[in-house]
From TrEMBL:
Record keywords, A-Z: Amino-acid biosynthesis, Hydrolase, Methionine biosynthesis
Organism: Heterosigma akashiwo (Chromophytic alga)
Name this protein carries in UniProt: Acireductone synthase
Any one GO molecular function term: acireductone synthase activity
GO biological process, one term: L-methionine salvage from methylthioadenosine
Amino acid sequence: AAAAAAAAAAAVSPRTARKREAARDATLQDLYKVILLDIEGTTTPITFVHDVMFPYARDNVAGYLDAHWGQEECMADVAALRAQAEQDARDGVAGLVPIPSAEGGASDEEIRAAVVANVQWQISIDRKITALKQLQGHVWRFGFHSGALKGEVYSDVPPALDRWTEDGLRVAIYSSGSREAQQLLFGHTNAGDLRSYLSCYFDTKVGHKREAASYREIVMSLGCEAREVLFVTDIYEEAVAAREAGVAATLSVRPGNKPLPADCPFPTIGSFARIKPDEAHHPLNRL
């Protein structure tokens, strides 16, 4: 193994060797302008999302519908979920729960009951679609504002956000949860309101997180070059998509996260305190 490593090192071109040496002496702000963060499994424990956030939405969706039925925002949520259910029917999605309409003769009570059943089914299979995330965000809004919910972040996250912004880096969020839900979570955390550190929020309206086009769209919105963005996520396939778009990627390894492939080519971190240029400036991402 040692001989193979030595041979590989010898095969590196002088130009690549110089780049790697420069990376060791560089700081994050020398290499990047934006740190783009995932939430679940990256800034926030997966257990919080699955054991607190999702159950709250599941258990309180009926109350949300009862309290807001007839209001424009609520009815837009219902219309989006119905449209998704119709698309699911066309796609032959197993287990889907249809949502009837008043035009079809359904009563408000029947529609609300179908929406609750549809949402609970989607949550049970951990779907990441925009219509569901939009409704969840509105249910969570009440929970955060009432104090029933409080966001959780890892202890190393607040000092890292403070350090990065102090160094002139922009910090943005890209999550499958709606932008409103992201702001609610970071505005009501166990470490206080962290929104002042965050410059942008992106959700699945820019595209799915496993598609390179989504990261190209984010780069365009950020107004910088792809190589000036470092994406931190716990999902291998998302890192692959980011790299395909020219964005550097580092994988978050936290307790409870999904295991990574044995031959994973990306740098990994267990804490934001360990995001250093020599790790982030990985040759497969940047050279």
